[in-house]
Hints:
The complex is a heterodimer of chains A (about 375) and B (about 120).
Chain A: E1 12-13, H1 17-22, E2 26-30, E3 33-38, H2 43-52, E4 55-58, E5 65-68, H3 72-79, E6 91-98, E7 104-114, E8 117-121, H4 127-137, E9 143-146, E10 151-157, H5 161-167, E11 179-184, E12 187-192, E13 201-207, H6 208-220, E14 225-226, H7 228-237, H8 272-281, E15 285-292, E16 303-306, E17 309-320, E18 325-333, E19 341-346, E20 349-356
Parallel strand pairs in A: 1-3, 4-14
Antiparallel strand pairs in A: 2-3, 4-10, 5-8, 5-9, 6-7, 7-8, 10-13, 11-12, 12-13, 15-18, 15-20, 16-17, 16-19, 17-18, 19-20
Helix pairs in contact in A: 2-7
Chain B: E1 7-8, E2 13-19, E3 22-27, H1 29-35, E4 38-42, E5 49-50, E6 55-61, E7 65-69, E8 74-79, H2 89-92, E9 101-105, H3 117-123
Antiparallel strand pairs in B: 1-2, 2-3, 3-9, 4-6, 5-8, 6-7, 8-9
Amino acid sequence: xxxxxxLTTPPLTSPLHERHxxxxxxxxxxxxxxxxxxxxxxxxxxxxxxxxxxxxxxVSHLGKxxxxxxxAAAFVNRCLANDLDxxxxxxxxxxxxxxxxxxxxxxxxxxxxxxxxxxxxPNAANTAEVVRRLTEAAPEGVEVRNVHHGLAxxxxxGPESPRILEYLGLPHDHDYMTFREHxxxxxxxxxxxxxxxxxxxxxxxxxxxxxxxxxxxILVAGAPPCGLGARDTLRLEMGYPLHGQDLSLDITPxxxxxxxxxxxxxxxxxxxxxLEAERAEGPKRRLWGLEATGKGxxxxxxxxxxxxxxxxxxxxxTHAPTLKKGVALxxxxxxYKPGAALELDVRGRRLPVRVxxxxxxxxxxx
Amino acid sequence: xxxxxLRYTAEHEWVEERDANxxxxxxxxxxxxxxxxxxxxxxPEAGTQxxxxxxxxxxxxxxxxxxxxxxxxxxxxxxxxxxxESPELVNSDPYAxxxxxxxxxxxxxxxxxxxxxxxxxxxxx
Lengths: 366, 125
């Protein structure tokens, strides 16, 4: 008998991969995608560039899904948690795909093109599962199409980002969480005023074949390339949750204090009954921010201590470059509120922390 | 960048002979580059007795944490006071301003058992 040869799937790469290699990026695997973690300037410089000027991120690993056909928007609204009728055509919305127990299958952005056409951007790791659930539930006449591999997504973020888009002749004056379509060399580019950094910014969805030219143009216009390492420190300073860490099948939106992203008044959505029950009873734990008051760097999965008692666990943690101190998101027993002084168990050492309501850093006006 | 005059360990630390029985320790250029931006360095108290191979501190970067080891047995004489406010010196100047701590070693002869620049260069190939 001999062991079966190990079958490994080579990691997926972005249509911009060659460019990242040429720029000397360091790569890391994100949900099976080999994506730039940082460029030679480093995470701190990239973070700073986005907070003060701007930066460009390749987030092509994100999922892309079309839901089309008569009543597509109404169908999506019966499944996903936020109320899609809060926005009209041309609007985008942060929403959640829940399971029947209220756990978070994914958090995603829904673009409402029309009543019959919705575009979704799920997380890379969850795209197949979101597509599976929607496909299974779709009524006759509504089609769910996974276009994960045909489109690139480039985020331009930071206070100077409108100037970058203006330079490239792209629409940039529209409101936060709305999008425009624009033809670039016969390719349709979706320009959404959105992002996950807390800064003014855009996410551009572009066909693979046009992605390199657009990326090159953005860099020439003055946005330095930034990796997913900086995207993580930027989102964490804002207290934005990351699925797989701060949200999961085991963490409900009620616990994560995402009530604002729930369409409570809708007749139904996946997980509604479980969520209503938890909301009525009060969640046993809540996701809050922790700000280190001593020196040290919180990381995910550290115990939060009140004296000798474990009262919670961090779900994300990092050194916040803007604040120059450690910050974390943590699930804490419901008794703990902002202002409480607790400690983190950092590999046997105690790091004093204060419970706060994120964001840790003020965002620029959207 | 691997200075010829220093000694090295497999844990990517450099060791510099300073005075009789006193060595200075830091992490190599290879190590700082692999870690990325260093944001926090935790070092031992002066006076601590350490044995070769002991974990005596930690280096935290934006993405990960690594242990700092005592490469030789002896007593911690001093730690770099600048690293508390400016941990980025470990990235910008790993072999000089980014030094970590000095040890008064028990046996200065043990230094020659560490890797020389050539051997360390092979290790990082």
